[in-house]
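Researcher: Go.
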Amino acid sequence: MEAKVRSRSVFSSVKVFVACQSVLQLSQLLVSGYMKSSISTIERRYGLSSQKSGLLAAFNEVGNTVLIVFVSFLGSRVHRPRMIGFGALLACLASLLMALPHFLSGPYRYDNQRYRNGDSSWNSSGLCYVQSVHLANSTAPSSNQSCSEQESSTHDGIYTLLLFAQLLLGVGSVPMHPFGISYIDDHASKKNSPLYLGILLAVTAIGPAFGFLSGAFLLRLYVDFDKISADEVELDRKDLRWVGAWWLGFLVASCLLFMAALPYFFFPRDIPPEDESQADKKQQQLDTFQEVSLVHFLKSFPSMLCRTLRRPVYLLVVLAQVNLAAMVSGLATFTAKFIEKQFSQTADFSAVMIGGLCIPLGVLGTMLGGVLMRRWTLGVTGASKFCTTAILLSLLCAFPLVLMGCPTQKIDGVFPPRSTAPWCSSACQCVPESFNPVCGSDGVEFTSPCRAGCVSVEMYSAKKVINFTECRCVGEAGGSATPGTCGSGCGRFLLPFVVLMAASCLIASLCQTPSFVIILRTVSAQEKSLAVGVQYMVFRVLAFMPCPVLYGAVIDTTCVLWDRKCGKQTSCLYYDLDRFRHRFLGVQGVFLCGGLLCFFLTVQVLHMRREGLAPPEVPNQNVYELVDEHSKGREAIPPQT
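Model: Structure:
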């Protein structure tokens, strides 16, 4: 009997629930971070444009946004720990579905593998063969000959499957955060509640960092390491065609989610509160909330939403946070790709820069902002001034980044573009869609050794090419070319770029905690949950959902050469790096300026209100009064200022 009571007491502690919630959020956010670290790899593997990959990264917000209103209504009506457990199992299934395309697809094929089809009569290195037209047509492979194999090895619905998995992941994560936070707040003491919530906020920020670091490790492995031996891998990680084991992280995350979900089925619906004096008050509030019907809640939700958004200070601060969230969504989704392309770095190195540096500094800035606010005892006006100053300094740090970039390397026939094929390779019968980049000894890059006019090759082994020789288009003819890209050649800018970017992220994150406090202090106690719910709903609708697609579309406009498979445009092979840098960072600057403007207007509104030059805040009204048709005449609770 004593053992039974002791086993129950383990799951009757708020501290145990906080520990379980931290592990679950860490596992769930690991999936999100890993997805963003692998986005350029998934693009390359399945031939996606940046706009499509941006939609894929943002699609989990769709299911989350649609269901968040119903979760806000359910509140304590349901068994919250059990609902969190079911959501975690659903997220586990979604993570498994994310990895499924790897097992449905055939082995990854690239350039010479794509066109070789096992025929040893054709040179697998793609050299220049000067032959008669009749002989060339009978031996040289064409894109049409390889289409059937590509179509059979690549599942037609892979992109749709990935979208569905992301949608399912968003649905599964719906109950995790609101139910977890409300469950803790209902049963924790007033003294300990901020500490517990602070732990969850820190885990929320650290979770994506673990995802990026996991991506940095797993992307070093070849995508098909489970299908072929290491001796058969012809590429290295610096090759533009390299695809890492993007799918492996989703399998690991699904295992973590499954284990994290199990404890929630042992927590009771309600546990003894830490502070017994608050038990009756909280229970009375819960009973009042449970009297509201779903029909009344849905009918009154638009009026509650409009009433919340009519507060100028609340609206301006939320819009400022939306601008910052839009900037963060772009940074999280495409900064790794930006570093990879701009400075000719590998995908795993770029993931380390984001997960190991930028995100931890963002977490540090969030905590430091709360510490400074407490140390300086800032009120609403002081917090708004603090946020304005932080965003201004962040903008000043970010401005030099536009100038710290690399020009696009010279790519024969691509950059600068050329309308006609060079005479030196016109008779080589090159495969139009082949992509096997080589760097000429004169510093010019070619999309294949055939286009460089190379007629011979030096081999280290049966599968390792050292050098292409007798290249007619390199230098004054007869030059050589090495496998791989020439690169942008300005790695000296990488360190100062990373330092300034990290400083900008650190300073901008200082305003996260103060801006959140401004929102909590400008609404009534009864409307805090609604205000926070509306805040996150606006985040998703205006920032997290559309912005990755927007960034992807902007990046696609800078592409100078698209890959083509079976006559269809797929992923981008080369970008105009100057345009890429200016437009990508330019969008970031626009959102920073938007956040700066909103915080500045917040300061002005508060100043005018203090001087009596602006009308007072719209009176707050109890949320439950809005849904009770017979309570319109009651006195509203004054706002906290």
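Model: The chain has a mean pLDDT of 80.
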